Amino acid sequence: MEFRHLGRSGLMVSEISYGNWITHGSQVEEDAALACVRAALDAGITTFDTADVYAGTRAEAVLGRALHGQRRESLEIFTKVYWPTGGGPNDRGLSRKHIMEGINGSLRRLQTDYVDLYQAHRFDVETPLEETLRAFDDLVRQGKVLYIGVSEWTAEQIAAALKIADEMGLDRLVSNQPQYSMLWRVIEPEVVPLSEKEGVGQIVWSPIAQGVLTGKYRPGQPPPAGSRATDDKGGATNVKRWLSDEVLTRVELLRPIADELGLSMAQLAVAWVLQNPNVSSAIIGASRPEQVADNVKAAGVKLAPEVMRRIDEALDPVVERDPAKTTSPRKRP
Q: Does some domain include residue 219?
């Protein structure tokens, strides 16, 4: 495993991290989830990402049990706050009340005294940014949080947060967690240039585009039985945008490139996002331990400029680059 700084901070993270978004507590039974976490640890992954909302808080609890007994100082545990975790009007958003209550619930489920990174899971248009940043800063002062970040914020929102933090003398954001893959490059025009300038690192999710970049979905064929595209617990909704024959035909053009390099298509996809120097870590998920073992082999892989050019040529007509695709709800959910 290779390690990188999280943005311009002193925190080192494994360049491949393990996330349990729609698997633990939802798609995957606990025994399988625990086996995947063990496989991640065995592969040298030290960075684990979750969120309070995943599987209705169950994902945090599963991860807490899976990491119980591990040396805490050897791990980096990330979680997030924003989406609803209850039925009340304050069980959501980035108000001081929800942030303070949210971290206490997360720490309890994760069985830890602190998280290494606490992230604003979306931008909250109904809370003053000053209130959110002050609450985060207070958690750092209390020792419950070591670093703060955001997820799926626009460049304008990140810039505003950094400006307020500097003016108020608060802890600065060190990271952003956006979707990023060969097919989804919306952070490249605005978010990445700002982040490079300001020392904000990207912790990217869905580097294999919900499994589409593994090559298991073929044009003109139904999704394989048991794949995410057939999962009615959330997986099918998330992957369907990529299942057109136009996209899948283009993805097939990556197969000979991966074969020439001795990589699986999944390894090629994860390695591709890691070529971006602003990416601190790529999050992988898994429903089986062998998927972890396969994906981590992308660590340390260097792709030549010619390979990067061939990938661009293969996918260019179906790549999404519009920065306006980074959005947060216009009102609290």
A: no
